[in-house]
Specification:
The chain is built from 12 helices and 12 strands. By secondary structure, the chain is α+β, with helices and mostly antiparallel strands.
């Protein structure tokens, strides 16, 4: 019987153009037919018993999924590979890492063993089974610095990929060991309560830290305001004094359309007697503290204040 390439295509769909020997056998392909497809180049061997279809482009995700399909056990992408799938803003050096749930010590480079892999620690990214954002963060605690882990966590919170409650549960059921430092995760959780707002960027969080360290009144994060028929969220606001702080990162506030939007937004807010303080990458910590302190101590009737860092 001639090989049915439509069947192969259907099997490889959603698997990064991969198909396993067992899938081919289950679909009715004989050993000799599979061998003929390999000789003709219609199939390319990627891992033992795992093949890529003709015309497929080699990709790190294809190699990663092939490694998972080759393992006759419950395996998922983990550590560096999972961090790459989740697009961690800081991640370990790229490598092929697989987490295997088993009671024995597996052999093979990049294969990690675990006896704890509940459904809550599992996810699928780009069609590839992997550890959840929370489990990946815990498994990378010896591969990234506490600062990097904090940046990754805050970015995940902004993208709504991670939950502090899920991270807390994940850390509680795992153990520290040679490959994991859960004390770091607990410290990160201790710095972020249920009301923690990661802001729009890491730079915004730095501005907030400067304000707090200076002992200034705590601002309201992402304070909602409706002005000129539109809704806006202010980075940091002191509603009683009608003072707000905005951080303008060049990546998001450059270009004609962004400048026009920022100007329209600021005019609408000033029309409601809000006083803006605008900081940029060039604003020093001292300038931030001085300008916020002065604005909070100045009655709103004195008009709008604006700070842009001098060159």
């Amino acid at each position: 019987m001639a090989p049915n390439f439509g069947t192969i295509d259907a099997l490889a769909s959603g698997q990064w153009s991969l198909v396993t020997r067992q899938q081919l056998v289950d679909a009715g392909f004989t050993r000799s037919t599979i061998a003929r497809l390999l000789r003709s180049g219609a199939l390319r061997s990627v891992e033992l018993g795992v093949y890529a279809t003709l015309g497929s482009v080699r990709d790190w995700r294809q190699d990663l999924l092939a490694a998972l399909l080759a393992l006759d056990a419950r395996a998922v992408a983990s550590h560096s590979s999972a961090a790459r799938l989740w697009a961690f803003i800081h991640r370990p050096a790229d490598s092929l890492d697989v987490l295997l749930e088993c009671d024995f010590t597996p052999k093979g480079r990049g294969i990690h063993r675990t006896t704890i892999l509940p459904d809550e620690d599992l996810a699928v990214r780009s069609g590839i089974p992997c550890t959840s954002f929370e489990r990946t963060l815990c498994d990378c605690t010896t591969l990234l610095s506490p600062f990097q882990l904090g940046r990754v966590l805050d970015d995940g919170l902004r993208r709504r990929e991670v939950s502090l409650l899920r991270l807390q549960r994940c850390a509680a059921r795992l153990d520290s060991g040679p490959g994991r430092r859960l004390g770091v995760v607990k410290d990160l959780l201790g710095q972020r309560d249920a009301l923690f707002n990661p802001g729009g960027s890491a730079a915004e969080l730095h501005v907030l830290k400067v304000i707090r360290d200076a002992g200034l009144p705590e601002p309201v994060q992402q304070h909602p305001v409706r002005a000129a028929g539109k809704s806006y969220a202010l980075d940091f606001a002191w509603p009683e004094q009608k003072v707000y702080v905005e951080y303008y990162g060049l990546a998001w506030h450059s270009g004609a359309s962004a400048v026009a939007y920022d100007n329209e937004r600021q005019r609408a807010l000033v029309g409601l007697q809000w006083r803006p303080l605008v900081f940029t990458d060039e604003s020093s910590d001292g300038q931030i503290v001085r300008d916020v302190r002065n604005a909070l101590s100045t009655p709103s009737s004195d008009g709008a204040l604006e700070h842009r860092a001098s060159a």
